[in-house]
Amino acid sequence: MDSKKIVKVPFEKDVVKELRAGDYIYLTGTLYSARDAAHKRLYDSILDKESKGAVLTGGELYEEKVLPLDITGNIFYYLGPTPAKEGQVIGSAGPTTSSRMDKYTPLLLEKGLVGMIGKGKRNKDVIDAIVKNGAVYMAAVGGAGALLSKCIKESRVIAYDDLGTEAIREMKVEDFPVVVVIDSQGNNLYETAVEEYKKSI
Amino acid sequence: MRTIHTDIIIDTVKDMCISANLYLAKDMEERLRYAAENEDGKLGKQIMNQLIENMEIAAKEEIPICQDTGMAVFFVNVGQDLHIEGMNITDAINEGVRRGYTEGYLRKSVVKDPLIRENTKDNTPAIIHYDIVPGDKLEITIAPKGFGSENMSKVYMLKPSDGVEGVKAAVLEAVKDAGPNACPPMVVGVGLGGDFELAAKLAKKALTREVTSHSPYEHIAKIEEELLEAINKTGIGPGGLGGKTTALAVNIETYATHIAGMPLAVNMCCHVNRHLTKVL
Question: What residue of B is the nearest CA neighbor of A162?
Answer without folding.
Answer: B119
